[in-house]
């Protein structure tokens, strides 16, 4: 089988090499080429003009795109600056809200303390009045009857005012 495969392959033909030196071979190859013809300058300049126009259009388009990108970048910068300003204001508002909450709490505590102090002062004054009345009543029984009349007097005057209304 191997022998059949070997036989079915075509034999390679040996390529005859010329015994020319490299300079001669170069000259021979050059002679086989078509002779150089100068370019048709009118078609060449027309093509060059088309290329230049295409390049100019491309550059113009790139400049427009670049200008658009610059405008977009500027808008984004302005938007980021606004965002930063809004975030700064929001942070300030949050701080102010926190400060207001703290101030409200401090004010509430202060009012509670004031209320307690006023209540304490009123109780103290009430006790002083009661002790002064007790001392006064203990001194003179006639004053006791006057004190009872005075105690009734405000309520009588109040009743008279209410009846007049």
UniProtKB/TrEMBL annotation:
List, for all copies, the residue spans of the domain called No apical meristem-associated C-terminal: 16-118
- This protein's source sits in the domain of life called Eukaryota
Q: Which InterPro entries does the UniProt record give?
A: NAM-associated_C
Please list the residue ranges that the record marks as compositionally biased, kind Basic residues. Answer: 7-16
Provide the residue span(s) of the region labelled Disordered.
1-43
One family name in Pfam for this protein: NAM-associated
What this protein is called in its record is: No apical meristem-associated C-terminal domain-containing protein
* Taxonomic placement: Eukaryota, Sar, Stramenopiles, Oomycota, Peronosporomycetes
